[in-house]
Protein: ATP-binding cassette domain-containing protein
Organism: Microbacterium alkaliflavum
Amino acid sequence: MTIAESSPAGAGASTRNPVLEARRLVKTFGRVVGLDGVSLQLYPGEVLAVIGDNGAGKSTLIKCLTGAYIPDEGQLLLDGQEVHFKRPQDARAAGIETVYQNLAVSPALDVASNLFLGRERRRPGVLGSVFRALDTAGMRKDARAEVQRLGISTLQDVTVPVENLSGGQRQAVAVARAAAFGSKVVILDEPTAALGVRESNMVLELIERLREHGVPVILISHNMPHVFQVADRIHIQRLGKRAATITPQSHSMTDAVAIMTGAATA
Ligand SMILES: Nc1ncnc2c1ncn2[C@@H]1O[C@H](COP(=O)(O)OP(=O)(O)OP(=O)(O)O)[C@@H](O)[C@H]1O
C-alpha cells in the first residue's frame, strides 16, 4: 500500500467503509482549476486534517463536500450512497455540519438558543401553533443534556448569552451545535485560528471528545502542531491535487510542510 492510500489507524480500520467519500472531484473557475481530480475518504470515528498552502484547494474541496459548490466532475458518497448536494441545506439535511471560521453564533442569544438555531421548538398547543411561543424550558433541558453527552465542560450554563462567553467557549457552542442532534460528519474550518493557547487547547480537546463519541471530523487548519496533535490522518492538498495522505506516525511536521510546498513527495 502506498502512503497516499494509507488507511486510518486502528484495528480493522482498513476493512471499514468511509462515512464520506469524494472520488476524483474536479472544480474549475473559468480557466482556474480549483480542484483537479481530488479523492478523499473520511472513516468512522476519525479526525482527518486537510492541510495545504494558500490556494491549494482546501476551501474549494470543503465547499464541494458541503453543497456550497457543485463539482464539475466526480462523485460524492455518504455511507456508500452517491449524493448530489445542490445547496448547503442539502448537505446539512444529510448530516454534514460545517463550522466556518467566521462563527455563525448569535451573540445576543443564550447557549441553548444557539444550539437550536434554525431548528427552534415551539410550545405545544395554541401557544406554539398560533402565538409561535418557543419551548424555552424544553430546549434548555435538551441543550444541557446534549452539552453533557458531548462532555463539553466549558459550557456549564446554557442560559448565558453567548456574548458573555470567551472566544474558546463561543467556538465550543458552534462545535456543539454542529455535533448535536445526530450529525454524521462535522467539518471545522480553522477552528483555532483566532484563539489563544488555552482556548485552542479547549477546542482541540473538544475535537477529541467528538472522536470518542464516534463523530468523524474533517479539520481544515494551517496550524501544524494542532493538526499533529489531534489528527488520525492528514490529507495534503497541493496545487488543486491531493499530494498525499499521511499520518502523524508516518511523517513529521517538517515532512508535511515539504510535501505541501512540493519540496518532497510522500
Ligand atoms: N470563487 C472563485 N472564483 C475564482 N477562483 C477561485 C474561486 N474560489 C477559489 N478559486 C481559486 O481556486 C484555487 C483554490 O482556492 P481555495 O480557496 O480552494 O484554496 P485554499 O487552499 O482554501 O486557500 P487558502 O488557504 O488561501 O484559503 C485558487 O487558485 C483560487 O484562486
